[in-house]
Amino acid sequence: MNRQKSFVDSKPTLFLVATPIGNMEDITFRAVKTLQEVDVIFCEDTRVSGKLLHRYEIKKPLKSYHDFNKEVGSKEILNHLQGGDNVALISDAGMPLISDPGYYVIQDVIHEGYHVVSIPGVSAVLTAISVSGLVPHPFLFYGFLDSKSTKRKQELQQLKHYPETLVFYESPHRIHKTIKDLYEVFGERKLTLARELTKKFEEVIRGTTKDMQEIDDIKGEMVLVVEGYQPSTEQPTTTILEDVQTYIKNGLSSKDAIKKVAKERNVPKNDVYMAYHQES
Ligand code: SAM
User: Fold this and answer.
1) Which residue among 21, 43, 95, 192 is best mutated to probe the pocket of ligand 1, counting the most ligand atoms within 8 A of its Cβ?
2) How many whole angstroms from 135 Cα to the centroid of ligand 1?
3) What's the gap in Å between 209 CA and the centre of ligand 1?
4) Inter-residue long-range contacts of 55-61, CB under 8 Å, 24+ positions, other chains counted
């Protein structure tokens, strides 16, 4: 067990500071104050973060941190904390760690007994959910799906029966293929595509996985918010046994008939198997 009293016990602290996702004004007073007060700031890309610091006249040493050089990155941050420094970690946009680097370093910092404090702010996931028009919670934030279609479809298969609203980050060059895979695996569901949030060309497209198939050349940063699985409220007029028997009469093997009925009713194959064998 690890109990951290963030502002009662005085310890060197790693601050996770949220930065804007487009509109430079989306930064909190506390975030600016924290960045002005820490001893050193670690970021993903010094050119991107340099512009933000310049805008808010923050003059602090800026160093780069990447998860892919996680050992080196964590070590440098730990050295600062060991020396008594307070450290800030920022990403190129939004909340650090949310589809961004930071997870490994906070593991090490917690392990070494220093404080980890969040200075919260904007994140694309909540911004998109709030304007989506879809049920806001419970939601499941998935982040990025795999870039390869086969793997992506497997990931979607696993999520297919989740009742929660699903949120994905996506890049513009894959968006058409991802929407195609969403329709193929989920069928028709409500879908909101929120792009360039907080920026001049912000756009929110609310539709379905079916009618968004036509979306092709869409640019910018984007989030997909997808309606969760809705079990059909219509009660079937036939029993499972009757359905299986009908398919068998029509020439399917009992195995294939069970598989088909399970798929149609969205129930586990084993349930159909049991119903068929117990009742027939
Ligand atoms: N840490 C960020 C956050 O808290 O949202 C996310 C960083 S992740 C590397 C970048 C992805 O976030 C983009 O590919 C896009 O899916 C989403 N994103 C970031 N900014 C966005 C914006 N202004 N509008 C829509 N999506 C955005």
Assistant:
1) 21
2) 21
3) 21
4) 55/24, 56/27, 56/32, 58/32, 60/35, 60/36, 60/88
pLDDT tens digits, 136-161:
999 999 999 999 999 999 999 999 99
Query: Which mutation among 49, 66, 222 tests ligand 1's pocket best, with the greatest number of atoms within 8 A of CB?
Result: 222
| Amino acid found at 279 | E
**Distance from residue 222's CA to the centre of ligand 1 (Å):** 7
Looking at the structure of the chain, the number of domains it has is 3
Q: Interior CA angle at 212 toward 210 and 216, to 5°? A: 135
| CATH number of the domain enclosing 143 | 3.30.950.10
Is residue 175 in contact with ligand 1, taking CB distance under 6 Å?
Answer: no
Listed in order, strand segments (DSSP E) in the chain are: 13-17, 40-43, 62-64, 87-89, 115-119, 139-144, 165-170, 190-195, 203-208, 222-226
Domain end point (choices 226, 255, 270)? 226
Average pLDDT over residues 165-178: 94
Give the distance (Å) from ligand 1 centre to CA of residue 114. 29
Residue 118 Cβ inside 6 Å of ligand 1? The answer reads no
Closest CA to 243 of 256, 234, 230: 256
Question: Could you tell me if residue 159 is inside a domain?
Answer: yes
State the CATH number of the domain containing residue 32: 3.40.1010.10
- For position 71, what pLDDT does the model report? 65
108 lines ligand 1 (CB under 6 A): no
Separation between Cα atoms, residue 81 and residue 203, nearest integer Å? 42
Mean pLDDT for 70-93 is 91
**CA of 143 relative to ligand 1 center, distance in Å:** 9
Q: Which domain holds residue 39?
A: 13-122
